[in-house]
Amino acid sequence: MLRGIQPVMVLLPFFNVVLHVVAKEEGIATVSIEYSESLEEATQIARTALLLVSQFSLPANPVNYAVLYEYVAGQNPPLNEALEQLRESAEGLTNEQVNSLYHNFISGIDEQALKEVRQTLSSMVESIQGSLAKVSQESHVYQEHLGVATKKLTDDEPPGVVDIVTHLIDETMRMQAASRSLQEELAKNNKDLSSLRTEFKRVRAESMMDSLTGIQNRRAFDHSLAAAHEHAKICNEPLCLLLVDIDHFKKVNDTHGHVVGDAVLKQVANAIDDVVRGGDVLARYGGEEFVLLLPNTSMGGAERVADNICNQVRNQKMDSAHVGKDVGWVTVSVGVALFYSNETTEQFVVRADTALYHAKESGRNRVCTNEVRQTL
């Protein structure tokens, strides 16, 4: 009978960790929801993550636990690649580096939704811990009754065996009832966890998307850029970056208003998206600026894509039927950079931005690289 309780009791370390996480304000409770396909799998991931915390001599705080939980779960490739690179370095893994990984690859989820998830999960954990405590108490009482019965049966003059067996049957049925109650509680909470996983995935997806244009936002692009940067270095493949800026966009807003300006942004995003291939990454970089990552693409190929973007935007209809007013001819300027294996992602972006600056200074409505200027 007691053996059947052991699989339930092994969940205690997991729930203790979640309680510790829920009590914090960093919003780390998300990791136990997004990746725990089952309570058993979540428990194993939690244990492994805590072992890594100890192995790396890191403080066992929620931020470190969150990063290593996602690392063990293996569903955040940019995080895993960045962490693997740090592990291979001579310096090892420091608390400051883990904090940086957290802010770069995990934080940024909608705080209100995260607060609701935290509160729900906290209530679930309290409920399950209460059930576990009840079963633990029933188990202790049951063990005591077994001890008393064993002593009576081994006495020189034992009392009626029937009475002892009847008492044990009653205690066994009481223990079974407590176990069933716990199983029902766990089943209910497992269903609630599934709903929370779905909700959290929705929130996380929305946090990676630009709400106006429907394409990736800056945060999502930074993740994609980090992963592409590592891949290009390891595989020695070309990687190009395009920065696209709408020409004279301030004039559109000042003349026609921000509602029309937002409509123009959507139209431009759609025009660029029509040029994008399956493996390319398009994002709104900020304001009227877009960014396009082209994996395994040479400089010549990237310039052709940039030319196509200029043509596509120039031919996009910006009339009252599409943007609310007759805006007229809208054009874009594009800066192109080819990744160098010895540069950081920041340097890579700066070179593309410098090329974009040259395109603007050269008259707009054109493509420039960080090496060669090209006029349409």
Description:
With 376 residues, the protein is of the alpha+beta class. It has two domains: 1-207, no CATH class; 218-374, Alpha-Beta Plaits (2-Layer Sandwich), CATH 3.30.70.270. 64% of the residues lie in helices and 9% in strands. The protein is built from 15 helices and six strands. It has helices at 6-9, 12-22, 31-34, 39-55, 62-73, 77-88, 95-105, 111-154, 161-207, 218-235, 249-256, 258-273, 299-314, 320-323, 345-361, and strands spanning 239-246, 281-286, 289-295, 332-338, 367-369, 373-374. The chain has a six-stranded mixed sheet with strand order 2-3-1-4-5-6, sandwiched between helices. Strand 2 (281-286) and strand 3 (289-295) form a beta hairpin. Helix 4 (39-55) packs across helix 5 and helix 8 runs antiparallel to helix 9 (161-207). The radius of gyration is 30 Å and the shape is elongated. The model is unreliable at 1-37 and 372-376 (pLDDT under 50).
Average pLDDT level: 78
What's the total number of strands? Answer: 6
Number of helices: 15
Through-space gap between termini: 81 Å
Query: What ranges have pLDDT less than 50 throughout 5 or more consecutive residues?
Result: 1-37, 372-376
Biggest sheet, in brief?
A: 6 strands, mixed
Which percent range fits the helix content?
55-70%
How many separate domains?
Answer: 2
Order of helices and strands: HHHHHHHHHHEHHEEHHEHEE
Task: Write out the strand line-up for the largest beta sheet, numbering strands in chain order.
Answer: 2-3-1-4-5-6
**Shape estimate:** elongated
Helix/strand/pairing category:
alpha+beta
Beta fraction: 5-15%
Instruction: State Rg.
Output: 30 Å
